[in-house]
Amino acid sequence: MTRILVTDDEQKIREMIRKYAEFEGFTVDEAKDGFDAVNKADKEKYDLIIMDVMMPNLDGFSAVKEIKKKDPNVPVIMLSALGEEYDKIHGFDVGVDDYVVKPFSTKELMMRIHAILKRTNADTVDNEKFVLNDLVIDYAARTVTIKNERIQLSPKEYELLVYLVKNRGIALTREKILETVWGYDFFGDDRTLDTHVKLLRKNLGDYSKYIVTLRGVGYRFEKDD
Q1: How far apart are CA 111 and CA 107, in angstroms?
Q2: Backbone angles phi and psi of 14, in degrees to 5
Q3: Which of 164, 173, 143 is nearest to 209 (CA)?
Q4: What is the pLDDT of residues 142-198, one digit of tens each?
Q5: What is the model's pTM?
Q6: Which residues are CB-neighbours of 153 under 8 A, at least 6 positions away?
Q7: Strand arrangement of the beta sheet that strand 129-132 belongs to
Q8: For residues 49 and 64, what is the distance between their CA atoms, to the nearest angstrom?
Q9: Structure confidence by residue, pLDDT tens digits, 13-32
Q10: 128 exposure class (CB count in 10 Å sphere: 0-12, 13-18, 19+)
Q11: Is the dihedral angle over the CA atoms 120, 142, 157, 66 positive or is it negative?
């Protein structure tokens, strides 16, 4: 049974999400603030966490950081009434997989949950590595290293990098990348992809040059010929 933790200081929002999530067949736990979420995540293994940003005692960003220390691969959907680019970048930077701005459609939220869980549970790992000079992507371990030092990527940054690498040399449209990596017909802020590429380039350092922007089209990972 898929277990989800819903964290929000507003009881009505928790109850609304619980109602729809349980209808979809999920087991749902609730947390009323960041501290409550961290404590529950420390005792229970969750398949996905929904986390509000603005909460008393401990905010969502700080809570995600603490939870990721124990379970770095747990998917997180962030809820916020803010919606500013800075908050999205900060969320992605701490390992958030998706970002939903309040007020939101519960149907849309369920779609995003299913899409993330489908990617997370998919048994499509290749037992091989991609090596480009000092850059190594270990698909089985889901790790990226440069000069034998592990690079800390969010789950979404990792998935984006792997998709670009496995299609290196191919011009990939923004729509195709969003559909494949995000797993649904994306209709949110179209800067989401650009934000992730920006963060990914920052983490890749000198290897960022291999991710080429195709103006008006999308992106391409250059072949090392």
Answers
A1: 6
A2: -60, -45
A3: 164
A4: 889 999 999 999 888 999 999 999 889 889 998 889 888 877 555 555 688 899 999
A5: 0.62
A6: 144, 161, 200, 203
A7: 129-132, 135-138, 143-146, 149-150
A8: 9
A9: 999 999 999 999 999 999 99
A10: exposed
A11: positive
The residue type of 162 is V
Element (H, E) at 212: strand 211-214
Count Cβ neighbours within 10 Å for each residue of 174-212 and write b for 16 or more, e otherwise. bebbbeebbbbebebeeebbebbbebbbebbeebeebbe
- Tell me how far the alpha carbon of residue 41 is from its chain's centroid: 18
Which tokens hold the place of 177? Answer: 């990348």
For residue 50, give the H/E element and its range: strand 48-52
Q: What are the residues whose beta carbons fall under 8 Å from the beta carbon of 203, sequence distance 6 or more? A: 151, 152, 153, 157
